[in-house]
Amino acid sequence: MLITPDATSAFTSRLDCLFVGRNTRGVETRQRQADRTRETKRKLMEATVECLVERGWSGTTTTEVAERAGVSRGAQLHHFRTRGELVAAAVEHVGAESVEVLKRRAQIAEKSTHAVVELIADFHASDLFTAALELWVAARTDPELREQVLELQARLGREVYGLALELLDVDDSLPGVRDAVQATLDLVRGLALANQLADDGKRRAHVVRYWARMLEEQL
Length: 219
Fold this sequence. Notes:
Radius of gyration: 25 Å
Largest sheet: none
Number of helices: 9
Structural class: mainly alpha
Mean pLDDT: 83
Distance between the termini: 89 Å
Low-confidence stretches: none
Helix content: over 70%
Oligomer: single chain
Number of strands: 0
């Protein structure tokens, strides 16, 4: 049988379509798998923070988290081998999301030192701080968890410090600025701790106003 150039061209085109179709389906499949992985992790991390806030470290088991998230134990263990890994990832994930929320709130808030300090204080008085506090306390007596928490604390600390500089519109290379901003963060963490057992909002508002006046003079 004679194979003409047209027949060869048509055969090659069919092969190209076949391979392109397979490649496209492969890309789509991998994308769907990546989307499912992200969604599974998101559910697990949000459920973990909820569990930490409601039940504390002792009540935050991997089984409880998987049930809350609607995720199988196998899927949960595939992504996070230990409770420590899961909780540290959850706090970091929610922390990063909370920082983004704080940035958006800052864009529409009043541009004053008091407004910025109030925003930062409210950020630390959120459920994220409660979840992180449970993790920090557990890490005190768990060497393996402590290593994870120290790294997490350093990353979140740098993120929040940088955000405070940005919101206050200050340069920490200038004398006194770094100490003033760090003292602000230490203050709001203390206020958030005082808010754990009872609503301390009224006293927090008073302290924030007082500190904002002092900070404005310093900066």
